[in-house]
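WARN  no MSA supplied for this record, continuing single-sequence
INFO  ligand: EVA
INFO  echoing inputs
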Amino acid sequence: MLTESVLYPINNETRQSLLLDGLWNFRFDPKDEGVIQGWNNRLPAPISMPVPSSFADFFTTKEERDYGGTFWYERELFVPREWEGSRIKVRFGSVTHRAVVYLNGVEVASHEGGFLPFTADVTEAARLGEKNILTVRANNELSEAAIPCGMTVTRPDGRKVVKGYFDFFNYSGIHRSVWLMREQEESVQDYSLSYEIGLNGGTDAAVHFQVRTNGPHPVRVTLHDEEGKEVARGEGTDGVMTVPNARLWQVRNAYLYTFTAEITDGGRVIDSYSEQVGIRTVSIEGEKICVNGKPVYLKGFGKHEDFEVLGKGFHWGVAKRDFECMKWTNANCFRTSHYPYAEEWYQFADREGFLIIDEVPAVGMLPSLMNFVDAGQGKTYSFFDRPDMPKLKQVHIAQVEEMIARDKNHPSVFAWSLFNEPETTSEFSKEYFTDVFDAARKLDPQNRPLTGALEKGGSPDGGRCHSLCDFICLNRYYGWYINGGVDFDDAEKELRAEMDRWAALKLGVPFVFTEFGADTLASEHKLPSVMWTQEYQNEYLEMTFRVFDSYDFIQGELVWNFADFQTAEGILRVNGNKKGVFTRTRQPKDAAFLLRKRWAEK
Ligand code: EVA
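INFO  complex generated
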């Protein structure tokens, strides 16, 4: 269980948080000699590197862009003398894929996993009223014992090449903001909320709260509305507040309250933590996905954190444009394929009323460099019978824990996706995922639905893991990887045939298409269409939608992908994956207009 506090940094009368974003020092370490050479004390001959950002696309040589191995970041920071007697921490939004952190040469933290936050307690190591040196030794190698899965090969010239078993570029670096934080010794470490609505035969809501602190003093909680008016209060670390006439957080019509937990000592506030939250419930009712008890049809996209030059570095401007484009298409949902995104995405979605399927970075559990093709064609492998499996499972579960701990209070998050397209046909996979799902079931105070995205092998007949899912997510490419081009006429028939087989199982749960799409070059038009043209993408979508509209249990459609994105090089990728409905610079292809029209009416 996570004991470290992963609360997002805030500023108030008891807490201070300073952004450490900007230009850091940087250096590659291809021989992995930095520790022996003492680079944790001072990084010799560094170059400059923006944070947050991926390093890859700043460079003009392939060796640097495609670098695999260890690399270092460093910067100076000043710790105010007035912070004496407080807890001082450095918090990283993420470092890809693993990191060791030093302050003034002393190791203060290490973390595995490139898409979730961690903090280093630097209270002991920090020099107050002076400059300190913060250093990060990071590593972006992939293996079959960590997620996302892949391999690292050393070429004859000693250069390491990292190959992901997944279809996005292995962007690396400090991708999200870094903060220097000051907290009180006794402080709020975590909190969880869950809701009941429609109480007392009307519009009252119950807000169940749990607050974790690290000290003996009493806790008080409050809820304020958007006008700043207090609407409820409670006492203790565990309890329930009643909100009369609660304004609910609704899909695409968000209402946010501010939750505050305070530790008090008589009249004095020792620590105070506030965050915006939304009152809403999510549930699976038969074949429907319900928010506040009402069915919602999911319309939207699988996305990536991906943009020109920045790679996977978070930028508020890119997020803003993405939300504007998604709203313009009348979408209401996205999946954080294939890893948890920067926390700011969820804050944005909370405010905009978007639903999120939050996905752990368990991608690439099919040992192939082109498994997006194999998966689309239903090729089967065995993956979970390997010697590294126990280690992999441990890492996987740890990241499920970290993701749920980080994101559990966001109203936008309505489901957890615990995998993308693993092998799910062997008995080993069944055992593996039973353990992962069992672990996840214990973690969420809101008991949100659990799911995972199944590739074609995870079929009604061959797949062994769909019964673990509260609703079933399918990634399907009928009309692209199979039955594409001249065989397109068969695509609809085959997709219907598969859906009929699912229907025959009478599972009684909702199905969501978490991927379907066709690579489309924004430059290409042709009458009649051929694959890769904008006309083909539209015909593909129209055919797929005809099928979706004939099965009541299909309750969502998340197109692959929101925008074109960078991948590794290969004969099937034209400088990246082109299945975007928008280009990589976020301009619409013809398909965007088709979606906008359909989703206005759906
Ligand atoms: C694709 N197909 O081929 C997508 C991949 C994605 O980008 C998949 O889940 O099955 C994968 O990552 O375009």
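The two ends are 42 Å apart (CA to CA).
INFO  checksum written, moving to next record
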